[in-house]
Each structure stands twice: as structure tokens, then as C-alpha cells.
Amino acid sequence: MDSKFYADLSQDLSLMLDDADDYNVIIRTGEGQNIKEFHAHSSILRARSPYFKSAFSTKWVTKKNNMIEFKKPNIRPTVFEIILRYIYTGEANLSKQSGADVLGVLIASDELLLEKLFKHVQDNLINEQTNWVKQNFVLVLHTIFKLSSCKKLQDHCVESICADPQPFVTSKDFPSLDKDILYELLKRDDLQIEEAVAWDYLIKWGIEQTPGLGSKNNDRTKWDNNNYEALKGTLSRFIPLIRFVEISSADFFDKVRPYRAVIPHHIYEEVAKFYYKNTLPKTTTLPPRVGKIQIESMLIKPRLANIIAVGSKEKMDITNRSIKNISFDILYRSSQDGINFNIFRNKCNNQGPCLVLVKSQQSTIIYGGYNPIGFTHSGGQWRNTTESFIFSFENNEDIQNMKISRVNGHHANYAIYEQYNSYGFSFGNTFFMSSDQRIYFSNTGYYDSNFSNVSNPYFNSNFYPEEIEAFKITIS
């Protein structure tokens, strides 16, 4: 029977490290007043670290009296001590280490190609150093976004910030945040921040980042045209990421209007027209920021679900722009339940507002409809709503070209047709699932003139669906 005595091996190698009287490597770490010399064995370093194996076979190192001398000024002694003990023993006790040292171990293990240690340290920062990471988000972000292999920690930090951005944007380090990281955060739809607050802190960040401004010149009443032009240059990438239509008219007047000079003219004019005439901008069409959306769909991804959900509120209540929670609960899926109008009705009737998604067998286009009043058991009845709409996307990656046709205001009484004994769903007999297992498009005139774009290429035609999904949708 094979026996393995890893614990004894680890202990013996630990003694070898602590009493390295036969060492042949001297490694000097740190810089300035914080320098420490470590003694090690080249054979162990080579065996455990691809970095050292490569380094010892090149001219990176110097030899003096057959002793290899190696300098690592970028690694603090406290960090290298953890690294070296891991190399010798396979152990890494991080429980009593400061967050700064654990982050240092992450950087060093990446550089020294210690893959298993790197993964362990990344998990430690996520699970054991949560508070320290939150208190030092800017430092951590600046560090990990330089490490391509650190995606797990990157995602953790970004998602944590999106869920609760207030402590982050109000921290003293926020004005020094790298511009590329700020861009990635602002473009996210799940950044849970009021748009007026996002604007405030973008301006503060821009002032600190702009030469000639900053803490010594942050009073805009004393700025000249050159100052405004400089700030405009700093913010040019970020202005299109602000959802201006989510800012109240009072905040627009008090907070945005004073910085009109830094906003591109066409964007400002579109936003001003929105506040004066309730006309949605054509250029800045980003949806409102919402919470992270989970949807178990075979047809669309969460970002498309976000756009659809926003479409269900857009322009219906122009004063209520705050959508923070969206949930999609699957009611029906044809690949599991069968393409059957009776099954659709049994699963979807009396469930409240519903989202229907359909994909044909011959196309990548996703078709759908939003029913804000839900399906019922009513037979042969037309039902009134001004908020239903039908839509299409070119494919499940299409977040720019949602084609939408809303119910015609003059025909709101015909928005939804209830015929449970022959139709699965029917949006005004314009877009419907029939008992013959086909999906039909028919220009009844009950939905607006964009219907032809939505129904392309099945205008006044039909198809066999590859998949049909229906979700109960809740927006708050």
C-alpha cells in the first residue's frame, strides 16, 4: 500500500528554509529603508517557480563566488517571506496578514508564475479581506486591472461597487481613479447610482484630472474659456455615458446647466428638448441604470432583458424614472412544455404582466411582446391598455437596434385579444400564437406604423417557432 507523508515533507523543507546553511541564492527584496536579504536553494526555486527557472538560466542574475545574487526591489520583505515559505512548504497562512500584504502576495505570485497561490490569494481577498478591499477600492482596482489573470477579483470588485457605489464615489481616493476603470463603471447599466449623483462625481473627478484645475482652481465662477475647454477634453469620453433623461428637471437646471460648456452641443440640445418637450434624445439612448438582472432565458441575455423592461416603462410615466428592481420568472418554455396554445394558457393566465419571446427556425431574430395587464381566461374579448408593445432584435447580442411598435393610442381597446380556446397569446391579432403551432404577424392597424420593421421579414406572414418563452415580469 502506498503511503504519502506530505506533512513531514513540508515540515522538513520548512526547517531547511529556516536554517539554510547550504544555500546558494541570495535574494534582496524591498527598497529604501525596507530591505531584507533571504537565503534560498536554487534547485527548489527552479522546481517550484517557472519564473525562477527561467531567471536562473539567463543573465538576469549575477554570480559571485558561486553564489547567485538576485534583486527584487518591487516585492516587500513581508510579502516575499510569505512567497518563499509557500515555495518551500506549499503553505500560505494569510489569516493574520494585512490586506496590503495579501494584495502584495497577489502581485508577486502573478509575477513569479505561482498559479495555485495566485488563485488562493484572489479567493482570500474576495472572502476574507472584503472590508479592506472596500476601503481601498481605488488601490485594488488600479492593481488588479493590470493583471489579465485576475478577472475573478475584477468582477467581484466591480459588482460590489455597482451594488453600493456611494462609499466608493465619496472616498478621498475616487478623484485619482484611472480613467479607463471609471469608463468601464459608468457604462454599466447595473451601477446603482442616481444619475444626478453620477454627474456630480464625474464633474469632481474631471476637475481633479484636468491640468490647471484641481483643488487650487475648482471654483467654476473664476474659470475662463480655456478652463472649460480643458475640462471638456477630460470628460469627452464620459458625457455620452450619462443618462441625462434620468436626471430631474430641477437637478438638470442646478447641476448640469452650469456645465453646459463641457457638453457637446448636439447632446445638450437633445437633452434640453427632452426637458422642454418630453422628446426622447436620439443620440443618448442608453437605458436607465437598474439592478443586476437575472433571467433564465434560452433566447436573450440579461442586457436585452434590461432594454425590454425599460421599454415597458419608457414614456408611460415620464416623472417616474427610477427603476431599481426587475425580475423575470419563467412561466412557459416550448422546448420543455411543448408548442401548445392550451399549455401556454394554463401556465400564463392570471400571472400579471408578461413578456413573450419567440424565435423562428429560419432566423436569428428575436421577436416579442409585453403584456402589462396579463393574460386571462376571457373568451373572445378585446382588452384595453396603452402600455403594451411588440418588438424585435436582430439577434441575442443586439443591444442597439431594438425595433418597437407600441399600441396605437386610438386603438388601445384592441391592444390584447383574449381567445384562450384558439390562441396562446395575441397582441391585438397583430402578433399571435395560433392553435396550428404557428406564429402570425398581421397588420391590423392596432399597433403603430413601426409594425412593419418589427415584423420583418414576416410582415403579414407566419412561421414555425424554434422556441417560445413567457415570463412573469415585475418592475419596481
UniProtKB/TrEMBL annotation:
Domain TLDc span(s) in chain numbering: 298-474
Signal peptide residues on this chain, from the entry's feature table: none
Highest taxon, organism lineage: Eukaryota
Domain BTB span(s) in chain numbering: 23-96
Transmembrane segments: none
Pfam families assigned: BACK (PF07707), BTB (PF00651), TLD (PF07534)
InterPro entries reported in the protein's UniProt record: BACK, BTB-POZ/Galectin-3-binding, BTB/POZ_dom, SKP1/BTB/POZ_sf, TLDc_dom
Name under which the protein is recorded: BTB domain-containing protein
